[in-house]
Design goal:
38% helix, alpha/beta, binds zinc ion, 3 domains, Arc Repressor Mutant, subunit A, Nucleotidyltransferase, domain 5, 15 strands, single chain
């Protein structure tokens, strides 16, 4: 599992640890049964230098030595190196509907401890949310294993997130939360705190897990309770800043729409095709707002006619997005993408909207793929925002 992080660091982007020590540690994570001799050959480093740097990594606690099983051949078996997954741990806070989760994870992406809090989202204001997060994090801090160092606390959030200043500006799930300054948690919890957009974290880990080429540009569109996107280009995932990034749910593809959005504007595609809007419009039919339950609802109600307008609006949204960002691939997550008939209809509609006879795209049209939203990807991607600088610090030459 540790290669999850190794791949993220190895992908060639800005996350790659610099210097020889960093390269050796990354190689130890990514190799099977590495020895000093093998690593020296693979990296073109002199054996004496390799021994010296490996000793430093062992003293730092990042690398452990393991004796291989009994060797039938004559001669002393070479010692195998392996990464110490528990050397660094991170606390990842993420949200699933109205439940706030805090997970203590190690470098292998294993959850060592998890606590959660079911919030009354309609009543949770800035102070109540800060207090819930602080309590959950305090519980996780008590569980940090002996010998482990906490790299930091990573918050992965939906809606409009300013990753630079640490402000959570808005989320359709949390109507009472506005312009929440999360940077204050650094002092409150006496730890490094990073704030990231949830879709960006998920895409970051998905890109590494899927072994996508660095040169490949990937768009991820989440169509669920709300609608949002993340984009990765040349090894970097675009950051969300003060005005958000990827807030495609609030773009308009029908100027005659009178649908009121939670964001304060009229005609947003999310106010037409987001689950919250569909549930409001079809009141009385008991439409579940929870994405997992909504997925089941779609399975039980396969009538395509009901979803024709949302599908058409999303196909137009995709056309605009693909022409703006020109991704090689677009992964669509959320309940609608899990329904084969709806997803096929969406692809067909998109292709009609962006035909290959168009001189703009020709045969080179973006490929649409259905993907399942992944909490594990979100956790790994969020944790990497604190692991990466901590590893860089430990691996300074
Ligand atoms: Zn809106």
């Amino acid at each position: 599992m540790i290669e999850l992080y190794a791949r993220q660091f190895e992908i060639g982007g800005p996350d790659l640890p610099t210097g020889r020590k960093g390269r050796i540690f990354t190689k130890v994570c990514a190799s099977s049964a590495p020895t000093r001799k093998k690593l020296a050959e693979q990296l073109g480093i002199r054996p004496a230098t390799m021994s010296e740097i490996t000793l430093e990594l062992i003293n730092d606690g990042l690398v452990l030595e393991a004796r291989p099983g009994r060797n039938l051949h004559k001669g002393r078996p070479e010692i195998i190196l392996r990464p110490n997954a528990d050397r660094l741990v991170a606390i990842v806070c993420y949200l699933v509907s109205h439940t706030v989760h805090c997970a203590l994870v190690n470098l292998a992406g294993e959850t060592l401890y998890n606590s959660q809090f079911e919030a009354l989202a309609d009543q949770t204001d800035n102070e109540a949310f800060l207090s819930a997060i602080s309590n959950l994090c305090a519980g996780c801090l008590d569980q940090v294993p002996n010998g482990s160092t906490l790299a930091g606390i990573a918050l992965s959030l939906p809606g409009i997130v300013d990753e630079v200043t640490g402000f959570w500006r808005y989320s359709s799930h949390w109507p009472k939360l506005r312009n929440l300054d999360l940077s204050s948690l650094t002092e409150r919890l006496d730890s490094t705190v990073t704030v990231s957009k949830n879709l960006k974290c998920e895409l970051h880990a998905r890109r590494s897990r899927g072994n996508h080429q660095t040169s490949e540009s990937l768009l991820m569109l989440h169509w669920g309770f709300g609608i949002g996107a993340a984009f990765a280009h040349r090894g970097s995932t675009f950051a969300a800043e003060s005005r958000g990034f990827g807030e495609v749910g609030h773009t308009c593809v029908d100027s005659t729409s009178t649908a009121l959005c939670k964001c304060g504007m009229t005609g947003c595609v999310e106010a037409e095709a987001g689950i919250w809007a569909i549930a409001e419009r079809m009141k009385g039919q008991d439409i579940p707002e929870d994405e997992w339950q909504f997925e089941q609802f779609l399975r039980d109600n396969p009538d395509l006619d009901i979803w024709e307008r949302p599908v058409k609006l999303m196909a137009l949204t995709l056309r605009n997005l693909c022409l703006t960002l020109s991704p090689d691939q677009c992964i669509i997550t959320g309940p609608f993408a899990q329904s084969e008939p709806i997803f096929s209809r969406l692809v067909k509609c998109f292709e009609e909207n962006l035909p290959t006879r168009s001189l703009v795209v020709g045969e080179n049209r973006t490929k649409l793929r259905a993907g399942r939203a992944g909490t594990q990807d979100e956790i790994v991607g969020a944790a990497s925002t604190v692991f990466q600088p901590a590893i860089n610090l430990l691996c300074r030459d």
